[in-house]
Design a protein that fits this description.
about 40% strand; 1 helix; 5-stranded antiparallel β-sheet
Length: about 90
């Protein structure tokens, strides 16, 4: 191990060292279970934006979509949404 102490790591090795999944293009999820997030989605036809806060209950990588998907337990909201599935593009920290 001492022989390797000054070796260089490529991006894939760095992702794995920092907790990545090692999957192609997967990286690490931005949010984790328990994080409080803000979900925002804008209807392109009407321009109306729906914003909901909630807590992440599960994180899964979708190979088909090649991105992280999150299950969210929404806080009470005006849209009466009780279950929510989202990708990182629509989430920020609340």
């Amino acid at each position: 191990m001492a022989d390797n102490r000054n070796m260089e790591l490529n991006d894939e090795e760095m992702a794995n060292a920092s907790g990545g999944t090692g999957g192609s293009g997967s990286g690490s999820p931005k949010f984790k279970t328990g994080d409080h997030v803000l979900y925002t989605l804008t209807n392109p036809q009407t321009g109306q934006t729906m914003t909901i806060t909630g807590s992440v209950t599960a994180v899964n990588f979708s190979n088909e979509a090649n991105q992280w998907k999150y299950s969210i337990n929404p806080d009470p909201n005006e849209f009466n949404v009780t279950e929510l599935q989202a990708v990182e593009d629509h989430l920020t920290y609340a």
